[in-house]
Amino acid sequence: MEPTEPISGTFTYVTWEVDPVRRGPFVRKSAARRQFIDTLGPFLAGLRADPTVAHIRLLETTFIAPLAGHPNHDVTLILDGEDTLTGVVEAAIRDHGVRTPTLIQSAGNPIRFGNTDTSVGPVLLNHFVSAAPVDEVAATWQQISDWYGSVLGVSNSTLLAFEEPDPYVVLNYAVVPGPVVRFMLDQMLRPSFYRNVNGRLRRVGARALPIFAQRVDQQKLSSNSSVAPQ
C-alpha cells in the first residue's frame, strides 16, 4: 500500500450498544437501532456546526467476529479535529439527550495508507488488545498491512493509536474488498496468514478483534429534535 500523509489532530472514537443481536457473526437488522440512528440527526448537526470538528463518520455494525472479548457495539461514530473532541461530544450528548455511549476514546493517526474515507466497500474496524507499548503494536500493524495490501488487495488503512490504551491499544480503520465472508475466508485459507499476521501479533502479545460495518448516510437522518431511547 502507498503511504499517505497522516490525518493531523485528534480522533475521537465513540460507540453505542443499542441492539446488537446477532445470528452467528451477522448483526441482525433492528427497529430499535434504526430509531436510535435516525434520532441522531440534530446531535450530528450540532457537531458539524462546531468549528473544532473536521470530519464525522457514522457507522452501523453488520458483522462481529465471534472471538473471545469481541467488541459488541452496533453503532460507531469516528470524528477528527485539530483539538481533542471528547468534551465537545459529551456536551452534545447532554444537549440532545442522546443515550450514554459505551466507549469514548481519543486517538492519533500516526500512520496511514491510501484514503479510507473515500474508499468504497465494507468498513473494517479491527480492534487490537495488547499489553505491549502502542509504538510496538503500531509497528506490527504496519507490517501486517503490507501483507493485506500485497496478498488481499486492500488499498487503504488508517491506524488510530489510542491515548489511553484500555481496552484497545490501536484500531485499524479500513475499507476492504467485499463481501465480508469472502474476505474473511480469503485470509484464513492462506497459510501465509498464520505466519505473517497471527505470528507477528503473537510476538507482541496482541489479539485482533475485528468487526465490520456499513456507512450511514447522515443526510437522510431526521432533523427532528426527538430524544433517542435510553
Condensed summary:
The protein has 230 residues and is of the alpha+beta class. It has helices spanning 31-38, 41-49, 86-96, 134-152, 180-188, 191-203; strands spanning 10-16, 22-23, 26-27, 55-64, 75-81, 103-108, 112-113, 123-129, 157-162, 170-175, 207-215.
Textual characterization of the structure:
- With 230 residues, the protein is an alpha+beta fold.
- Helices cover 30% and strands 28% of the residues.
- α2 (41-49) packs across α3 (86-96) and α4 runs antiparallel to α6.
- It has a single domain (10-216), classed as 2-Layer Sandwich (Alpha-Beta Plaits), CATH 3.30.70.100.
- The model is unreliable at 225-230 (pLDDT under 50).
- The chain contains 6 helices and 11 strands.
- It is globular.
- The protein starts with 9 loop residues before the first strand and ends in a 15-residue tail after the last strand.
- The strands form 2 sheets. An 8-stranded antiparallel barrel has the order 1-5-4-11-8-10-9-6. Strands 2-3 form a two-stranded antiparallel sheet.
- The chain has helices at 31-38, 41-49, 86-96, 134-152, 180-188, 191-203; strands at residues 10-16, 22-23, 26-27, 55-64, 75-81, 103-108, 112-113, 123-129, 157-162, 170-175, 207-215.
- A hairpin with a 2-residue loop joins β2 and β3.
